Amino acid sequence: MGIITNNSSEGVTPKLNKVITAILAVSILFVFCLGETKAFAADEVTTTATTVSAEEKTEAAPAQETATTTAATTTAATTTTKTTAVKKINLKAPVFVAEAKYDSGATHPYNAQTNQLIVRFKKVKNAQKYQLYIKGGKYKKWTKIKTTTALKVKVKNLKRGTTYSFKVRAVSGSSKSSFSKTQKLSTAVMDYDVYGYQAICRIVFHEVGGMAGEMWDKPIVYVSDCVVNRFVAAKYTKKGVWASYYRNYNTVQDMIYLSGNFMSSGGLAADGAIYSRVPKRVKVAAYGALYNKTALNGIKNDATVFYWCNRPYYSSDSRIAYSFQIPWGWFNVWREYWG
Predict the structure, then answer these.
(1) Rg of the chain taking only CA atoms, in angstroms
(2) Phi, psi (rounded to 5 degrees) for 311
(3) Which end of the chain is more exposed for a tag (fewer CB within 10 A), N or C?
């Protein structure tokens, strides 16, 4: 029995060792394999994440570059637009066309001289429009009265017998020229047409305008004033003795030709007082009387003169406004009618 047990022990131990060794080996292998599997899984996850991140970056890069490019393009376009918008154009100041004083309705249109004026100026290169300013009458300070593309502007609703100042500048987009030099124009003290103007010139020429020498300049001015002042008193102020004489005559030529207080058109022609013979200084004087402004040789017009005659009153007579010695005596201008 002892021999058998001893033999069994010696025989079992090596086998048990082998079994244990085998189990340990399997266990180690299992653990190693499990570790490798986890490591492999972790590596796979890391690789996948890295790949995704790279792909996302790869896909995001073009979009970001596009956004940057678009922003840069927009900024460039905006900068170009701003540069274009602020670009200034060099514009010269406009120049007014000189006033047409005699024999023309270009500046002072016939039949509407008392309430309107025509302003004209020359074209400015690159100008898109013009801004016209006015001062005078009810316009106590410079006021923009018109923005226009035209070179001829009719300014309405003005006051009779009033001087107005005008200035103009050229405009193109946000660019503006400097202002022009100031031009002064006056409305007339009465409305008249070409025939009325010629009638005034003819009667003044008949009375004093045909005389030579500077000593006749004042009589020319004051006789022109007399004719105009009578019509104004009758038709516009409705005052004075002249209203009863002339209120029924609608035009100044009718007053001169038909009233009997002057001369008929035929009588003036018979005496050689036709318009083609009227000298320039008479036209200038008539213009000054119509617009109440100094026009002939610095002689100031007088709105209080109403009558003239060639009778030899002394210059000290209170009825006489102006008295001038002429070769055959005295020329007298009265301030008002003396019955």
Answers:
(1) 54
(2) -75, 145
(3) C
Domain hosting 34: range is 1-87
Label residue 92 by pLDDT band (50, 70, 90). Answer: very high
Query: Two tokens at 78?
Result: 């905006």
- 206 and 330 co-located in one domain: yes
Is position 339 within any domain? no
The amino acid sitting at 332 is N
CB atoms within 10 A of CB 104: 12
Question: At 118, which CATH number?
Answer: 2.60.40.10
Is 303 a domain residue? yes
Residues 6+ apart with CB under 8 A from 114: 158, 160, 161, 187, 188, 189, 190, 191
- Torsion, Cα 260 261 266 271, to 10 degrees, reads 140
Is residue 153 within 8 Å of residue 119, measured between CB atoms?
yes
Res 249: pLDDT: 93
pTM: 0.69
For 121-172, the pLDDT digits (tens) are: 999 999 999 999 999 999 999 999 999 999 999 999 999 999 999 999 999 9
